Amino acid sequence: MYPIVEKKVLSENVKLLKIKAPLVAKKAQAGQFIILRIDEKGERIPLTVADADPKKGTVTIIFLEVGKTTRQLGTLDVGDSLENFVGPLGVPSEVKKYGTVVCVGGGVGIACLYPLVKALKKAGNHVISILGAKTKDLLILEKEIQACSDEFYISTDDGSKGQKGFVSDVLQQIIDKKIKVDMVMAIGPIIMMKVVSNLTKKYNIKTLVSLNPIMVDGTGMCGGCRVSVDGKTKFACVDGPEFDGHKVDYDNLMLRNRRFIHEEENACRLADVK
Amino acid sequence: MSVRKTKHEMPEQTPQERIKNFKEVPYGYSKEIAIKEAKRCLQCKNKPCMNGCPVDIDIPGFINCIAQGDFEKASEVIKAKNNLPAISGRVCPYEEQCERECTLKKIGEPVGIGRLERFIADYEREKGKKPPKKARPTGKKVAVVGSGPAGLTCAGDLAKLGHAVTLFEALHDPGGVLMYGIPEFRLPKAIVKSEVEYIKELGVDIHYDVVVGKTITVDELRDDYDAVFIGTGAGLPNWLNIPGENLDGVYSANEFLTRVNMMKAYKFPEYNTPVKIGKIVATFGAGNVAMDCARTALRLGAEQSYILYRRTEAEMPARAEEIEHAKQEGVIFKLLTSPIRFTGDEKGILKEVEFIKMQLGESDDSGRRRPVPIPGSEETMKIDTALVAIGQSPNPLIPQTMKELNIGKHGNIIADEDGQTSVPGIFAGGDIATGAATVILAMGAGKRAARSIDAYLKNT
Asked: Per the CB < 8 Å rule, is B255 touching A216?
């Protein structure tokens, strides 16, 4: 069992849990994920490692309550425990000095971006961060990311904070300023990663994205998380989750992530969770 | 006295009944039938059946105990060699092993050795197992990676020899393929758990949620243990590599079976993992896994469940018993049929498979006649779900993270007959070394590796 040692509500539907999992905490690196199962009847869901403290043996996860499992997870509190918590899985991000790196985060993807921003800054990069959300109440980790960024921008769909519009608009402005960007790291909704990748492709800027397909085991066994990258089938769990943003078939990924949408809606209704 | 020429039948659920549930198909022998079947054994002095057993069970010995009604003694004879008889008594291909060598085959059917092994294992479980005797500790520590048939067997045998064994499992349940792959109706999960309990009673300590190669590396295990056994299996699914394979509705056999067996999707939404199959399901491949998929689909409510296979029934790798069960249940076999592409609708949902008819040509390397497409014989078929069951490759996680290990061209860890790899103190066996094979061969490999690990530990 893996006890919850801290809980924070970051926005209405976004929550943070700190879990005691010493083996995972010792090994976790930026870009990796874990798989958890709440109880014996639970499903296995992947969540990115938002932070890890090897000394205290804790791993931080941040999640958006979208389906039955994440909503149930959101009802747990300090003192509760998870049945399973396994990781760190996936290939860690390649953290090195690229030069100027633009880190683009959208929605709950910002949680996955945070450890990377930290690591890229530490590696000596000039880090420009752009965070986006539908509205200001849904923005998370602003202060934390700003603290380790050289430049920091916000965009909201409704203009309630920062620039009104999308993260890609801000990125376009940076590119228009003729700032030499060596790499773009984009993590967020699939559509955001697709738009950002299409933009950077025009300017031939290396772009990495972190994908979040449906998984079961997370060890390369089931192939449920397969994505098409450069026309080849890759498993996000063992080959990723990071891939070259210019080569990912986002449309297929969006379709595959909707595979169980009806079952999910059904389960939520039956469980009578709001 | 003349010997009965046929095996005593094992009573089973009727096909009409069993496709509506996930309960085990055969009920097993009663005591009376088991004794009668055991009395068919000729007790040959040269014990030819034992030549066919990968784990060296004294087969005439345990059958003789059954014939005399001493079931406890029969269990002791089996357990001297086999830690997991309730499992092998269900999934072993006896017809190709012990029973193939049986002298009775000269006049009829062999003794139902598999059925008798299963009877004894079930008898013991129902009656309450005797706790095993613990061996005197040797002070040596062994790490076993993977709790499938190879790992469980190796761990059990090492514990019996007095070594302190820690078993690392990546998933949340023990058993590997026994848990995620083989369906409930063929191998009830309660039985797997009960067999694992026995391994634990022998003193084996099991750690779940540990992905060796990620959570801990093999090198770290080497620092903490005197020897390491790798039994991580063939978990990587093979694909048809045809267009449309990533459409919604195409599953690997592994994903489909893991959802249903390990995650219990057949009880969704009581259990939270979903699976959906629609009305028409096509399984590609004709091994035991393919039969498991096609039969599982029927139990989930498929109206039509097809097996598409590019050769003929004679070349099917599945056990005859599995093919027979599938036929009885109404699985439709479309043979000499090879898929060309999957097509979907505008939402990316699978709708059709296009295939071409084949004919058998010259023999290939495997000795089987190679299927050749018949030009112009393309057809399409409406399907809701495609299950790709054309084999698995060795799991790449450990080979990727441990550079010193010699790896074969199929991604397998190279190990000799006794499980010794290219690195001293590191042993491997089962599907990770051989590529996908059977449960009992993995158990045999685990057993031989345990012997050679014991010998290695005595010399260190």
From this structure: yes
For CA atoms B313, B236, B171, B300, the dihedral sign is negative
- Cα B108 to Cα A82: distance, rounded to the nearest angstrom: 56
Tell me, yes or no, if B255 comes closer than 8 A to chain A by beta carbon: yes
The SS3 assignment for A150 reads: coil
A100 to chain B, closest Cα gap in Å? 31
Which of residues 178 through 207 in chain A touch B, CB cutoff 8 A? none
Residue type, A59: V
Task: Please give the Cα distance from B151 to B168 (Å, whole number).
Answer: 9
Query: CB contact, 8 Å: A157 with chain B?
Result: no
Contact B139/B225 with Cβ under 8 angstroms? no
Q: The tokens of B206 are what?
A: 């099991």
* Interface membership of B214 toward A (CB under 8 Å): yes
Q: How many angstroms separate the CA of residue B175 from the nearest CA in chain A?
A: 14
CA dihedral B319, B321, B327, B330 (to 10 degrees): -110
With an 8 Å Cβ cutoff, are A223 and B237 in contact?
yes
Using CA coordinates, name the residue in chain B closest to A264: B274
Q: Is B252 on the interface with A (CB under 8 A)?
A: yes
ipTM for the whole predicted complex goes beyond 0.90 = yes
Choose the closest CB to B248 out of A217, A220, A255.
A255
Whether A263 and B276 lie within 8 Å, measured CB to CB: yes
CB of A91 within 8 Å of a chain B CB? The answer is: no
CB atoms < 10 A from the CB of A265, how many? 12
Is any Cβ of chain A less than 8 angstroms from the Cβ of B109?
no
Smallest CA–CA distance from A259 into chain B, residue: B248
Q: Please report which helix (H) or strand (E) contains residue B66, including its range.
A: helix B59-67
What is the share, in percent, of chain A residues with pLDDT greater than 90? Answer: 86
Pairing of strands A232-235, A226-229: antiparallel
* Contact status, residue B259 vs residue B265, Cβ threshold 8 Å: yes
Residue in chain B nearest A217 by alpha carbon: B171
The residues facing B350 across adjacent strands are B344
Catalogue the E-assigned strands of B295-421: 304-308, 332-334, 337-344, 350-363, 369-373, 379-382, 385-388, 392-393
Tell me the C-alpha to C-alpha distance, in Å, between residue B417 and each of B155, B226, B434, B449. Answer: 18, 21, 10, 8
Spatial CA neighbour of A196 closest among A256, A109, A73: A109
Locate the DSSP E strands across B146-252.
164-168, 205-207, 227-230, 236-237, 250-252
Residue B405 corresponds to which tokens in the numbers above? Answer: 């290990």
pLDDT band at residue A272 using 50, 70 and 90 as cut-offs? low
The β-bridge relationship of strands B426-428 and B227-230 is: parallel
Q: Using an 8 Å Cβ cutoff, are A170 and A153 in contact?
A: yes
pLDDT digits (tens, 9 = 90+) for B252-301: 999 999 999 999 999 998 999 999 999 999 999 999 999 999 999 999 99
CA distance A263 to chain B (A): 6
Determine contact, residues B264/B250, Cβ cutoff 8 Å: no
Whether A262 has a pLDDT exceeding 90, the answer reads no
What's the pTM value of the predicted model, to 2 decimals? 0.93
* Residue B273 touches chain A, beta carbons under 8 Å: yes
Outline where B360-429 has alpha helix (H): 397-401
pLDDT tens for residues B376-431? 999 999 999 999 999 998 888 888 888 889 999 888 999 999 999 999 999 999 99
Cβ pair A223:B254 closer than 8 A: yes
Per-residue pLDDT at A274 exceeds 50: no
pLDDT at B340: 97
Residues of A in contact with B395 (CB under 8 A): 219-221
